[in-house]
């Protein structure tokens, strides 16, 4: 990151563009809680933008690991006395640091466009912790993709294809209760939606209409459970793939 700072800069530009575009283009046309007040939509929107930002870091993680594999760097690491999962853990933790920096800058921009929190400092920090946990979980998905493809370009494409339905079939940008019934159920049980809803509660921002789905009734617990499960499953698969791919 220090040698190629443009990676960090470009990583900051995209979420800032999402904040500005969604806030001012859609702000006056979205009905949230019975009102189309743009300021209400901005507060509704930001949890979704934060969650989208941490999940989109997945593509970068996958591309980075695929690039290391392509250049033979992983083979060099294999000659060193270290645990097989250490390389992947170090890479995902490095991506987590960059994600935290992006979230900080994004929060400053959100405050400038009118986003506000209405809860205690502890609850706000807990919301950002859930976001970082989700981002860390999804970087393991990116790690598995990066180990499974042949080129960094393929890893970038593969990392983005599945992210769009995950982030848009959710409650991030619209009230999921306005969706077609079967699509609403998918959105309500989406791990991404659970974290978004949990953050809205912890920020004290407007949320979606009441839902009977368990993740929407207990979003904080659902977010924690989903993220831990994703980490356990995809870290196991990634380390197993790393051993065979680098053998």
Produce the secondary structure layout.
Elements: H1 5-25, H2 38-71, H3 73-78, H4 86-112, H5 121-148, H6 152-161, H7 163-168, H8 181-188, H9 191-203, H10 214-217, H11 219-245
Helix pairs in contact: 1-2, 1-4, 2-4, 2-5, 2-6, 2-9, 4-5, 5-6, 5-9, 5-11, 9-11
Amino-to-carboxy terminus distance = 28 Å
Q: What is the number of strand segments?
A: 0
Rg from alpha-carbon coordinates: 19 Å
- Structural class determined from secondary elements: mainly alpha
- Helix and strand sequence: HHHHHHHHHHH
Overall pLDDT level: 85
Regions with little confidence, pLDDT below 50 for 5+ residues: none
Output the number of helix runs: 11
Shape: globular
Q: Percent range for helical residues?
A: over 70%
Reported for the largest beta sheet, the result is: none
Strand content: under 5%
């Amino acid at each position: 990151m220090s040698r190629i700072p443009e990676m960090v800069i470009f990583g900051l530009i995209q979420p800032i563009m999402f904040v500005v575009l969604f806030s001012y283009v859609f702000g006056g046309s979205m009905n949230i809680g019975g009102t189309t007040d743009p300021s209400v939509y901005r507060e509704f929107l930001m949890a979704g933008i934060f969650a989208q930002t941490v999940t989109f870091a997945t593509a970068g993680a996958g591309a980075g690991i695929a690039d290391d594999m392509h250049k033979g760097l992983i083979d060099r690491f294999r000659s060193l006395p270290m645990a097989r999962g250490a390389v992947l853990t170090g890479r995902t933790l490095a991506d987590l640091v960059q994600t935290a920096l992006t979230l900080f800058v994004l929060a400053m921009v959100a405050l400038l466009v009118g986003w506000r929190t209405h809860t205690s400092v502890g609850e706000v920090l807990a919301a950002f912790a859930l976001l970082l946990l989700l981002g860390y979980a999804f970087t393991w998905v990116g790690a598995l993709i990066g180990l499974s493809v042949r080129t960094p370009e393929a890893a970038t494409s593969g990392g983005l294809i599945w992210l769009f339905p995950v982030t848009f079939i959710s409650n991030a940008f619209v009230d999921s209760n306005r969706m077609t019934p079967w699509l609403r159920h998918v959105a309500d049980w989406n791990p991404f939606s659970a974290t978004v809803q949990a953050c809205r509660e912890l920020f004290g921002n407007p949320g979606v209409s009441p839902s009977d789905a368990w993740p929407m009734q207990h979003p904080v617990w659902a977010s924690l459970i989903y993220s831990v499960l994703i980490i356990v499953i995809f870290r196991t698969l990634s380390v197993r793939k790393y051993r065979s791919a680098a053998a």
